Amino acid sequence: MSFRRGRRLGLDIGSVRIGVASCDPDGILASPLAVVRRKDEPAALRELREIVEEYEPIELLAGDPKSLDGAARAAAASALEFARKIAAATGTPVRLVDERFTTVEAHHALAAAGKSSRQRREIVDAQAAVIILQNALEFEHNTGVPAGREMPDEESEQ
Asked: What is an example of a Pfam family matching this protein (predicted)?
C-alpha cells in the first residue's frame, strides 16, 4: 500500500478548544488552520463543518487522548464522543491517532519561537493539531499504512 493522496485535517479536541490543522494533498506539510471554541457545541460543529466543506479532506485525524501508560483518561471519553459528533456533522471519516506529548511538544515549539505563555495559550491547540497531523502523515509515508485506528463503534467502547 502506498500513501493515499488527498488533503487531511488534524484535530486536537480539548474540553475548551479544538485545534485544527491542514495539509497539502500530497501530505508533505501540516499547517495550523484554526482554533474552534467548544463552549457552544452546535456552533463549534457548524464551524468545523464549514472548514471541512472548504478543505474537502479525505479524512480527519483526531488526537486519541491516553495517559502515558496507554490507558484511556476521563478526557478521552469526552473527546471520543465529540469526535463522533464531528464525523456525523461532516460526513467525513475520523481516525484516532496517539496524541501523547503533543500539547507539551507544541508548548515547547511555541516557546522556542519566542511566544509568551499568553500567546501560546491561544494557539497551542492548533499547534498540537499540526503535530498530530504531521506525525500521522509521516507514519503513512513511511509505512504505507494509515496512522492510528478507525473510530470504534459506540458499543465496542463500553
From this structure: RuvX
